[in-house]
Amino acid sequence: MIKESERMARSFCEKNLPVMVFLDSHHPGKPENPYPPHYLVGTPESNLVPALEWLEKEPNVTIRRKDCFDGFLGSIQEDGSNVFVDWVAKNAITTLVVAGVCTDICVLDFVCSTLSARNLGFLKPLENVVVCSNACATFDVPLHASKRAKGAMAHPQELMHHVGLYMAKERGAVIASEVRFASNNNMGRLDV
């Protein structure tokens, strides 16, 4: 998942195309039920994984720290503006490629909100949302482990990954195992 995310990000950056990165960056004491505290502000896990740290220095990359599951909602500013909506408009994004963790939580919530906003006309000129399945993943909590942890639910990794992809497709996203640029086109036409 990380290798595919890195490959895609490099191909976008090589073509000087805009990239937006959402980082979970939660504040201690702010609940995100049903999940325990995770990706807390100031901890290493709230930063990019080492293979993607180079993105911080790329001029065409926008990094947004979010304090909720959904990158769309996590982009709302105190004044009501939305960093993601503004980014789509400023960069005239017509096709959005989505990668990340967790497929069935953060990715799915973002995709659903984005598609709803697009359908309501809030995300012009966005037309397509593509989820790259090989650049997404989720976590694993086996049944036996969930029984030992108070309040934990089983979360079979492979199944939940596919449930997230299914739900995204059901909402109108395109699911692709990989995303590449057409070799004869320098303008950035995607092959999915």
Give a quick rundown of the structure.
The chain has helices at residues 2-14, 83-90, 103-119, 143-148, 157-171, and strands at 19-24, 61-66, 95-101, 128-137, 174-176, 180-181, 190-191. It has 192 residues and is of the alpha/beta class. The strands form three sheets. Strands 3-4-5 form a three-stranded parallel β-sheet. It has a two-stranded parallel sheet with strand order 1-2.
Ranges with pLDDT <50 over ≥5 residues?
Answer: none
CATH class: Alpha Beta
**CA-based shape:** globular
Helix and strand succession? HEEHEHEHHEEE
Report strand %.
15-25%
| Name of the CATH homologous superfamily | Isochorismatase-like
What's the CATH topology label? Rossmann fold
The total strand number stands at 7
Q: Helix/strand/pairing class, anyone?
A: alpha/beta
For the record, the CATH architecture stands as 3-Layer(aba) Sandwich
**Count of all domains:** 1
Helical content class: 25-40%
N-to-C CA distance:
17 Å
Counting H and I runs of at least 4 residues, what is the number of helices?
5
Which sequence of strands runs across the widest sheet?
A: 3-4-5
Mean pLDDT comes to: 90
Biggest sheet architecture:
3 strands, parallel
Radius of gyration: 17 Å
